[in-house]
Amino acid sequence: MHLSTLALPLLAASVDAQLHKLAKQAGLKYFGAATDTPGFRERAGLEAAYEQYNAIRDDTNEFGQTTPTNGQKWLFTEPERGVFNFTEGDVVADIAENNGQILRCHALVWHSQLAPWVEQGTWTAEEVEQIIVDHITNVAGYYKGKCYAWDVVNEALEEDGSYRKSVFYNALGEDYIKLAFKTAAEVDPTAKLYYNDYNLESPSPKSRAAVNIVKMLQAEGIKIDGIGMQAHLVADRAATLDDQIAVIESYAATGVEVAYTELDVRLFTPNDEEKLALQKEVYRNSTGACVQTEACVGITLWDFYDPFSWVPYVFEGEGDALLWFEDFEKHPAYDGVVEALTNGTKPCKPGKGRGKGKGKGHKRSNKLF
Ligand code: 9MR
Predict the structure, then answer these.
(1) Which of 88, 262, 281, 339 is catalytic?
(2) Is residue 21 domain-resident?
(3) Which of 68, 102, 317, 326 has a CA positioned 20 to 30 A from the CA of residue 43?
(4) How many domains does the structure of the chain reveal?
(5) What is the CATH number of the domain that holds 168?
(6) Is 174 a catalytic residue?
(7) Listed GO molecular functions (predicted)?
(8) What is the pTM of this model?
(9) HSE (CB half, 13 Å, CA atoms) of 181?
(10) Which of 37, 40, 43, 69 to mutate to test the pocket of ligand 1 (most atoms within 8 A of CB)?
């Protein structure tokens, strides 16, 4: 092959791409971004942007991890009882595999984007048990060995810490959570099993209820490995750095790991310098909290390109929540993330090195912001 053809893919990668590279240097496992099948993206008709979008998405200096924003959800994987379809989920799983990126899998049991047949049926408790077991057995079984982590149960809690009423809870109470984790552990023993929810980024009744879910499972000897903080944040009222560190420590006290699983920081559009500066601070704080806590393994953006964000479609007048604008200019918040990744390194337990490579121990970093 001619040398110039060989060099082309290298030239396509941006020399500025650095989030995953810096995250690794800071002691995280990954910095990633969720992505979706073209047909599922929030904004259609942007085909002209795909090439540039894909180049950023596939650049492992930028993103070392990905999550399918939609394709592995119940609605798509088991649209009819016993009929399984992995076409959409595979698109992103294949991207991860081809790029050598870590795959977080999302989500096995969730009240939303559930197939209508589950929601609209009239079921006995035994039937709901069977439905959960069949779904997890097939979906987690199909992806077995490919998922670094599974969001096993998603959004089971209300803001006051009580359980959300759902077809699963109404039939089985909290036992549905136990059943889901137990089944997932049997089906894919190597995947990290997470409880995932929003508004878990500062201490609250909901964060304490998440801790109680972990304790409930542990008390019964059921495997749970992580708490996922979705972190759909708002630029002018996000949790402080200290609150984020405190809540991560409260999860870590149960022995589980922690991840930012769906980070975005929305603002009221049109943006201005002040709003973007606030957004930068919020991104810097979340990244900083992950870097400064032993338990936090990584950060996932909920996509990285503003036109593909869910935010404007749900919160009228809000948007610009990610790190790349429509014209592919980066938000100032990109530099906030870089600052947090370069200003600190992960603390580690006394006597425990950071593992592979340098053989150097490292000190607990001071709070930086
Ligand atoms: O990004 C997803 C969007 O494309 C879907 O329309 C939406 C439907 O609820 O789900 C979005 O992702 C959600 C995630 O799966 C769970 N946490 C909240 C996310 C934003 O709604």
Answers:
(1) 262
(2) no
(3) 102
(4) 1
(5) 3.20.20.80
(6) no
(7) endo-1,4-beta-xylanase activity
(8) 0.91
(9) 25
(10) 69
